[in-house]
Amino acid sequence: MPKLINRRSFCHAAVFVAASVLSAHLTTVPAFADDYPDRPVRIVVPFAPSGGGDIIVRLVAAQLQARLGQPVIVENSDGAGGAVGSAVVAESAPDGYTLLMANVAPMAISVTIDPQLPYNPRTDFAPVSLLATFPNVLVVQPSLGVNTVQELVEKAKATPGELTFASAGNGSTTHLSGEFLKLKAGIDITHVPYRGGGPALTAVIGGEVSMYFSSLPAAKPHIEQGTLKALGLTSLERSKAAPDIPALAETFEGFEAVTWIGLVAPAGTPEAITERLAKEIGEIMKDEAIASKVRELGAEPVTDTPAEFKDYISSEINKWGDIVKAAKLEIAQ
């Protein structure tokens, strides 16, 4: 039997209402590409503040503002696993003044899980560029009393269904990482979704849940302070930013669940604008001072062209679709 992802019946109505209201607020008369930009640019982050992607986007936004000569404002519009904020941008004017922090969850995972997704990741956006990739890290509250992933698995097998894992929302990589662990380790742990990475991280720090597959940038300070214990990374190899944390692939062959973020605009945005933005982002991420800050957060700076990013999104939809089907996940209708 497929595992139904519980979602409140008003979820899609909430996405529609929020997108309509916010896109009306953000929509303005399209500007000519050669005048771009002549007013503030907004980047919508479809999750709550303090997640790994949010941290990196704010770093990039400050640099982009200096290069564009106009304010670049980051706005959080969370809900429905990133679908609310993504829908806002999909319905905004294609003029380059409203951008989306594209995340693997709403752009590559939700399309397989949710047949009623209020946007099409393949056709409703104009890709700009990747920004960064980073693994998730499995963290637990020290009071749980486990020091390795093997000990966690033993505890889970001894108490089926009692251990819980937080996520940044249904269909996020933090959710799929937990489902992947269940498949690989043969354990029964209970999913508890939150409205973004920040609230999920707070929940595991506070002991509300047993574990969380956090983004490495968001969890790294807490790991260093000792308020969280890291058991493993979801990359195939150890990270240079955290070489002491083992890769889960060392225990479970082929365990990989890498998060990525980038920028996209509404479909129909002039190519001259997306190319300009991609060029600026490329120069920002290649700046050694910025790249070093991103790496210190546990992420790897990455840039590409709009065409390359479009192909990458398509390939990620296919990849995560296979994992979703293997885990037998679907939205409750």
Helix content: 40-55%
The whole-angstrom Rg is 19 Å
Order of helices and strands: EHEHEHEHEHEHEHEHEEHHEHE
Q: Proportion of β residues?
A: 15-25%
Total helical elements: 11
What's the number of extended β-strand segments? 12
Determine the mean pLDDT: 88
Low-confidence runs of at least 5 consecutive residues: 6-11, 23-31
Major sheet: size, sense and barrel closure? 10 strands, mixed
State the end-to-end CA separation.
Answer: 15 Å
The assigned structural class equals alpha/beta
Description:
The chain is α/β, with parallel strands linked by helices. It has eleven helices and twelve strands. It has helices at 11-26, 52-68, 83-90, 104-113, 149-158, 173-185, 197-205, 216-225, 271-286, 288-296, 306-327; strands at 3-5, 41-45, 72-76, 98-103, 125-140, 164-167, 190-193, 211-215, 229-233, 258-266, 300-301, 329-331. Strands 2, 3, 4, 5, 6, 7, 8, 9, 10 and 11 form a ten-stranded mixed beta sheet that branches. Strands 1-12 form a two-stranded parallel sheet. Helix 2 links the parallel strand 2 (41-45) and strand 3. The chain starts with a strand and ends with a strand.
